[in-house]
């Protein structure tokens, strides 16, 4: 009998048993110095990290640490987290109220989660990272009520429900970079916030289609990296509990949209960056020029390259691919070639030169990004059918991106609408050529007429993405600094895992 009693007690106190006994989301608790707030989906976690800890220094926005400091962490290990795909990126989403208030204590946690640094292999096999920048990302989300007291009412009046911070984690080094935002993962901030109970019916609206009503949620999120507001709109369904209370839930599995680089079809998530101009520098064109000459030393001699330095959603250095010489096509198709090494050095020098011109830290790998622009091949099927306006190859953290960072895509969509930029020149050439061909051909493609729909069709290594930008007038403007009201793109996302992550 005693053995049976002990066995039953052990069973009741096991983590699985605890999690089944705890009611789902009965209330939200808050983190304090003495107790860690736990999601009610999980057992109360008191476990401490017993393995070797990585020495950390004060939190840095871009550069590796050098002065270790003793961590004073009261954070649960393992830590409740959700693993989500947003667009062509994947990342760990965490309720920020579970973390210490001091950002200097975040670094050890994030490096442990991702398995960084991995200087020898660069694969992050000891953590959740995947060895490439698009898989080494963390997003911290908290209710707007948890923001600084003087900001809460102001943000609420602007339709903001949550505040979030994007973290780019270094792969081979211990860099923790919060200098910029991630457009792809931004698309899932609203869905995560609703899943966690941070946002409810107040964000839901409905439209009538025939006899049916469709429900959507528009979640306003304040991004602390860029100090900008981003809205995500997605379909929702309602779940009724035993007390008859209805709770909205993101419906991400509808057959509505597909995006290049991701197989399958899923619900459409509309990502809208409000007033995206000057996200880091305060100006859409930081140098007040549509084109800026960047002079660098390459192969022992000085050379100047044309660039457009544009800051919308994230600052980006745009380079004309035709100026990079014959090694550019080889670089984009074979990143391990000798030519790619040479061109990579050239691009990094150009990125750093552009950063300096924009007043940004050239040592911060995450910002600004650099992207190579080129025209779509004349007479190609995409050109004839009007499916592509411009081709882009972007680098992220020094590596050629397999698709395009969404903030770069959005920035490019904005730049293409600013007369005089490199992007504007390329798009004009493509559309003018199609116009001439369509008027001289008796079998003109009907899709050519899409050139007037306000979208810029961008070809990247994984496919095509359509980006829209809306401009407004700005009184007193000198004609260079246009006011961008919004930049929009359609993304999809998927829940991959919900549980705990060890750091």
From TrEMBL:
<protein>
    <submittedName>
        <fullName>DUF453-domain-containing protein</fullName>
    </submittedName>
</protein>
<comment type="similarity">
    <text>Belongs to the PrpF family.</text>
</comment>
<feature type="region of interest" description="Disordered">
    <location>
        <begin position="433"/>
        <end position="455"/>
    </location>
</feature>
<dbReference type="InterPro" id="IPR007400">
    <property type="entry name" value="PrpF-like"/>
</dbReference>
<dbReference type="GO" id="GO:0016853">
    <property type="term" value="F:isomerase activity"/>
</dbReference>
<feature type="compositionally biased region" description="Low complexity">
    <location>
        <begin position="438"/>
        <end position="449"/>
    </location>
</feature>
<dbReference type="Pfam" id="PF04303">
    <property type="entry name" value="PrpF"/>
</dbReference>
<keyword id="KW-0413">Isomerase</keyword>
């Amino acid at each position: 009998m005693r053995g049976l009693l002990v066995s039953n007690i052990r069973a009741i106190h096991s983590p699985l048993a605890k999690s089944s006994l705890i009611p789902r989301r009965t209330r939200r608790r808050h983190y304090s110095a003495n107790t860690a707030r736990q999601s009610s989906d999980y057992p109360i976690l008191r476990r401490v990290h017993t393995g070797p800890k990585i020495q950390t220094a004060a939190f840095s926005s871009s550069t590796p640490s050098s002065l270790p400091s003793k961590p004073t962490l009261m954070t649960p290990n393992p830590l409740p987290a959700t693993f989500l795909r947003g667009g062509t990126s994947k990342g760990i989403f965490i309720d920020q109220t579970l973390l210490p208030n001091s950002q200097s204590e975040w670094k050890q946690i994030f490096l442990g989660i991702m398995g960084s640094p991995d200087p020898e292999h660069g694969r992050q096999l000891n953590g959740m990272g995947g060895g490439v920048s698009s898989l080494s990302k963390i997003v911290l989300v908290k209710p707007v009520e948890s923001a600084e007291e003087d900001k809460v009412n102001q943000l609420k009046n602007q339709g903001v429900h949550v505040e979030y911070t994007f973290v780019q984690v270094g792969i081979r080094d211990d860099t923790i970079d919060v200098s910029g935002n991630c457009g792809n993962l931004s698309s899932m901030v609203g869905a995560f916030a609703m899943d966690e109970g941070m946002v409810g019916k107040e964000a839901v609206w409905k439209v009538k289609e025939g006899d049916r009503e469709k429900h959507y949620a528009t979640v306003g999120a304040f991004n602390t990296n860029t100090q900008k507001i981003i809205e995500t709109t997605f379909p929702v369904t309602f779940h009724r509990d035993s007390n008859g209370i209805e709770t909205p839930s993101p419906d991400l599995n509808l057959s509505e949209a597909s995006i290049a680089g991701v197989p399958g079809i899923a619900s459409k998530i509309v990502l809208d960056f409000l007033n995206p101009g000057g996200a880091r520098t305060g100006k859409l064109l930081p140098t007040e020029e549509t084109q800026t000459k960047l002079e660098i030393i390459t192969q022992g001699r000085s050379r100047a390259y044309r660039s457009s330095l544009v800051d919308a959603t994230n600052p980006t250095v745009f380079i004309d691919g035709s100026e990079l010489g014959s090694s550019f096509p080889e670089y984009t198709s074979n990143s391990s070639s000798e030519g790619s090494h040479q061109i990579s050095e050239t691009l990094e020098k150009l990125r750093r030169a552009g950063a300096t011109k924009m007043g940004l830290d050239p040592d911060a790998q995450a910002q600004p990004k650099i992207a190579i622009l080129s025209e779509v091949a004349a007479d190609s099927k995409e050109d004839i059918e009007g499916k592509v306006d411009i081709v882009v190859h972007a680098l992220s953290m020094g590596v050629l991106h397999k698709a395009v960072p969404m903030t770069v895509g959005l920035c490019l969509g904005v730049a293409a609408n600013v007369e005089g930029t490199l992007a504007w020149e390329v798009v004009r050439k493509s559309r003018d050529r199609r116009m001439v061909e369509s008027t001289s051909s008796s079998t003109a493609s009907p899709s050519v007429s899409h050139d007037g729909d306000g979208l810029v069709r961008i070809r990247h290594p994984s496919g095509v993405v359509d980006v829209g930008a809306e401009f407004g007038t700005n009184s007193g403007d000198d004609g260079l600094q246009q006011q961008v009201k919004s930049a929009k793109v359609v993304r999809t996302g998927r829940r991959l895992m919900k549980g705990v992550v060890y750091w």
